[in-house]
Amino acid sequence: MDDPGTEPRPAGDPPSADRIFLEVAIEQARIGRDEGGVPIGAALVRDGRVLGAGRNRRVQSGSAIRHGETDALEAAGRLPASVYRRSTMYTTLSPCEMCTGAILLYGIPRVVIGENRTFMGGEDLLRARGVEVVDLDAQECVELMQDFIARRPDVWNEDIGQD
User: Fold this and answer.
1) Catalytic positions, please?
2) CA distance 144 to 95
3) Fewer beta carbons under 10 A from the terminal one: N or C of the chain?
4) 129 with 102: CB under 8 angstroms?
5) 66, 47, 69, 48: which is closest to 57 by C-alpha?
6) pLDDT tens-place string over residues 5-48
């Protein structure tokens, strides 16, 4: 897998597994945006297989807790703890405190985020608890959030618990 601090690969090289699975999360974010929701997506992956993918559905479902990561966990369904302990959570945005808590609760050892420029969540807590956190700093993830925040600051502030 690529080290996020390395130089970009030349055009034509195959994408890393992290980039491939982040694309699943990005597709969920696009779907959420097109549904009128907050464009954040996530995917729970183990051994190269997507167990569940989801998107922020707070607007669409009138939910208080349906963020991308919690929706991906719900889509994966009830799993043994041993499955979570061998999984990676891919998310287009740095996980908020609630999603950080879910990652820690289920013992997910690795989180790959699309970006943390528009919002910095609980990355320090994840690292302090032994979770590997990889930031791919994907421009598309930044643009999805910047556009949404500019268009719907009220919904964004609600989503992250601000007035």
Assistant:
1) 69
2) 16
3) C
4) no
5) 66
6) 334 444 445 569 999 999 999 999 999 999 999 999 999 999 99
